[in-house]
Write a structure and sequence with these properties.
Layout lengths: L4 E7 L3 H11 L3 E2 L3 E3 L4 E7 L4 E7 L7 H6 L4 E9 L2 H10 L11 E2 L5 E5 L8 E6 L1
Parallel strand pairs: 1-5, 6-9
Antiparallel strand pairs: 1-6, 2-4, 3-4, 4-5, 7-8, 8-9
Length: 134
Amino acid sequence: MIGRLNHVAIVVPDLAAASKTYAGTLGARVSAPLDMPAHGVTTVFVELPNTKIELLHPLGANSPIAKFLADHPSGGMHHICYEVDDILAARDRLKAEGARVLGDGTPKIGAHDKPVLFLHPKDFCGTLVELEQA
């Protein structure tokens, strides 16, 4: 059901510093920051030959990742994202298997302008999983 790894998301306390580390120290291609008010984050994508790293920073006091950053002041891995061909079929199959889809189960449009869903980390070895329709 799952396809390729789309990205690994890392919450960072300083988006400019993290971008500089990936672009300068590691020599990666880094996108410009993109504010995503609907998700409460500012995101930067680090382009790798085989996948992406998504750097996340809270956008506003009500950001869903603000608590994560408060609990992990240095930042850290937040989630992994897998591609699926049909997000609604994937959601229905996962729910039938007992997996918990976060929110109301309705896909939202993610940073790549494609539908996304998040799955409860307790159902996936302690890891928050994002599904993105390919």
